[in-house]
């Protein structure tokens, strides 16, 4: 079997890497383990070119919170796929097969109503655990960087879908714990206006084997699980995450899409730990009214409602969806599959060189646009 070289497994975003903002998007596990000197002294062997006897590995297209993602093609169908790869000696430890279990817990979705990528194969090839899944379109992060900010119509359209995804995940007894634009991808072809949720590397069960909500630990945690800029105030304070925290983080992300920034972005500090504390401090000092000033009050209501929930409270997802659906209708918007990135010209070649980490997403933006034109 022929092989291709593999770079050291790194930690960044799924399918796309951050462009000049790595520190803002880094994840910390709840234990924040130090790097293993043994793992860091090893070098990954070449990757197999053929996975499971039928998927041909091609170029790298990005990385997840603990793994790398490659483009692939299935021999029989000719379908393009994404192949997530984790080296057995990676510094983060074995996580990919655990992530696959979360996808299995979500069950099989309808092909007419997909919410996450279809998993085609999970297994081990040599020193690598691998997961083969449907290839999706650009991440909301790539679209956001491409456009600078989103219109109210776009934010409402994606927000309603993201609430749907989180409700389904929560109803399966799973906390997502890593809300960020990188982890929500647009579909391709007939599903190019659909938002998918991906990357369950930091997910955790909140229901025990007896069907009861796991109690909140009395011990406060150090470090932040997830992406710091969107983390809830409770998570900053070391309190165990629950469903309310996924929703609060989503609220911050929606406001970021509207504003184009957040008050706690761009803070300077001498260390990652002190920067995380500074972000948490500014977040706590910023009122919901100040954060959402100039935008429809529904966004303030969304965040305020999320903060009002108790640790084990069942969120009223329909109430949250209703906030945005009614606003969408009052604004006279139509669900026409049109977004800012649909017609926005791509950067010129010289500018694209500065966006190497998003090159795959830019190509998928072109493909999504071509699919839309073909359907019209």
Structural summary, described in words:
This protein is an alpha+beta fold. A hairpin with a 2-residue loop joins strand 8 and strand 9. It contains 14 helices and 14 strands. Helix 5 runs antiparallel to helix 7, helix 7 packs antiparallel against helix 10 and helix 10 packs antiparallel against helix 11. About 10% of the residues have low confidence. The protein has 2 domains: about 130 residues, Phosphorylase Kinase, domain 1; about 190 residues, Transferase(Phosphotransferase) domain 1 (Transferase(Phosphotransferase), domain 1). Strands 4-5-6-7-9-8 form a 6-stranded antiparallel sheet, covered by helices on one side. It is globular, with a radius of gyration of 20 Å.
Tell me the CATH architecture of the largest domain.
Answer: Orthogonal Bundle
The percentage helix is 25-40%
Biggest beta sheet summary: 6 strands, antiparallel
H/E element string?
EHEHEEEEEHEEHHEEEEEHHHHHHHHH
Q: Please give the oligomerization state of what you see.
A: single chain
The average pLDDT score comes to: 83
Number of DSSP-assigned strands: 14
First-residue to last-residue Cα separation: 45 Å
CATH superfamily of the largest domain: Transferase(Phosphotransferase) domain 1
């Amino acid at each position: 079997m022929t092989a291709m070289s593999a770079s050291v497994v790194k930690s960044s975003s799924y399918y796309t890497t951050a462009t000049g903002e790595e520190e803002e998007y880094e994840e910390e596990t709840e234990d924040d383990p130090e790097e293993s000197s043994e793992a860091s002294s090893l070098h990954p062997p070449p990757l197999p070119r053929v996975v499971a006897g039928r998927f041909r590995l091609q170029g790298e297209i990005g990385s997840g919170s603990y793994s790398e993602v490659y483009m692939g093609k299935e021999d029989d169908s000719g379908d393009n796929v994404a192949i997530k790869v984790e080296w057995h000696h990676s510094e983060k430890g074995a996580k990919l097969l655990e992530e696959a279990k979360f996808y299995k817990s979500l069950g099989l979705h309808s092909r007419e109503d997909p919410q996450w990528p279809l998993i085609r194969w999970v297994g081990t090839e040599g020193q690598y655990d691998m997961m083969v899944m449907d290839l999706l379109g650009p991440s909301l992060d790539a679209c956001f960087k491409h456009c600078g900010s989103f219109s109210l119509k776009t934010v409402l359209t994606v927000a309603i879908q993201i609430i749907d995804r989180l409700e389904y995940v929560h109803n399966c007894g799973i906390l997502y714990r890593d809300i960020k634009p990188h982890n929500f991808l647009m579909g391709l072809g007939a599903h190019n206006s659909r938002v998918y949720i991906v990357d369950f590397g930091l997910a955790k069960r909140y229901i025990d084997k007896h069907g009861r909500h796991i109690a909140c630990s009395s011990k406060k945690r150090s470090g932040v699980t997830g992406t710091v800029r969107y983390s809830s105030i409770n998570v900053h304070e070391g309190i165990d995450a629950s469903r309310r925290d996924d929703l609060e983080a989503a609220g911050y992300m929606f406001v970021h899409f509207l504003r184009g920034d957040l008050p706690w972005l761009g803070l300077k500090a001498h260390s990652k730990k002190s920067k995380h504390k500074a972000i948490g401090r500014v977040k706590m000092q910023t009122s919901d009214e100040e954060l959402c000033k100039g935008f429809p009050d529904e966004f303030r209501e969304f965040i305020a409602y999320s903060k009002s929930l108790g640790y084990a409270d069942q969120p009223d997802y329909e109430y949250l969806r209703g906030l945005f659906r009614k606003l969408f209708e009052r604004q006279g918007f139509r669900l026409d599959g049109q977004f800012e990135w649909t017609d926005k010209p791509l950067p010129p070649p010289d500018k694209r060189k500065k966006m190497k980490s998003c090159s795959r997403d830019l190509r998928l933006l072109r493909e999504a646009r071509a699919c839309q034109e073909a359907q019209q």
